[in-house]
Design goal:
single chain; alpha/beta; 7 helices; 5 strands; binds shikimate-3-phosphate
Length: 181
């Protein structure tokens, strides 16, 4: 049986926001990859990008994902680019049910504006955020689409998303256990 849920999806789709209520509902722990990176390095994500660039950040991200994947009964909020490395995707798939939180670029831009703006997201600095979001999201879409379950969050409350993710997780658990007798 899968004993991890990995939340993947673009920045601003609610991964960090939803990990805790999902974990609470299951009696599991919630982990957040960006927070774990910040705890490990004592640096913020933008500072890590400033100092070592995206490549340095991705190395740390993979290390933290590998550590998280050793835990049992965890809901893990990943960063938007955690699915870029094949090794990360394999580690998540081994024991995890992978959920992609989806949202339209305009929804994402609005949520990011409300939560610190593009300065907190090094990959969205400079260019017009909506254009940058749309381009980066489209390039990554084939990887996000590999999730076991995809949910469009634009018009949903966090409670509704939590409920639907739990339902999907319980259904796949029932199927993998052989279904009802
Ligand atoms: C990134 C997403 C961010 C953070 C970093 C890179 C990305 O996390 O990991 O800025 O490549 O999409 P959130 O998805 O939590 O914003």
């Amino acid at each position: 049986m899968k004993d991890q849920i990995w939340l993947i999806g673009f920045m601003g789709t609610g991964k960090s926001r939803l990990a805790r209520p999902l974990a609470t509902a299951l009696g599991w722990d919630a982990l957040d990859i960006d927070t774990l990176i910040e705890q490990r390095t004592g640096d913020t994500v933008p500072a890590i990008f400033d100092r070592g660039g995206e490549a340095a950040f991705r190395v740390l991200e993979s290390e933290v994902i590998e550590d998280a994947a050793r835990r049992e009964r965890v809901v893990v909020a990943t960063g938007g680019g955690s699915i870029l490395a094949e090794a990360n995707r394999n580690v998540m798939r081994e024991r995890g049910f992978i959920v992609c939180l989806e949202a339209r670029p305009d929804t994402i831009a609005a949520r990011i504006r409300q939560s610190g703006g593009a300065s907190e997201r090094p990959l969205l600095r400079g260019a017009d955020p909506l254009t940058a979001i749309a381009a980066l999201k489209e390039a990554r879409q084939p990887l996000y689409a590999q999730a076991d379950f995809v949910i469009h969050t634009d018009d949903m409350t966090p409670d509704q998303v939590t409920h639907q993710v739990l339902t999907a997780f319980n259904e796949q658990t029932a199927v993998s256990a052989g279904g009802p007798i």
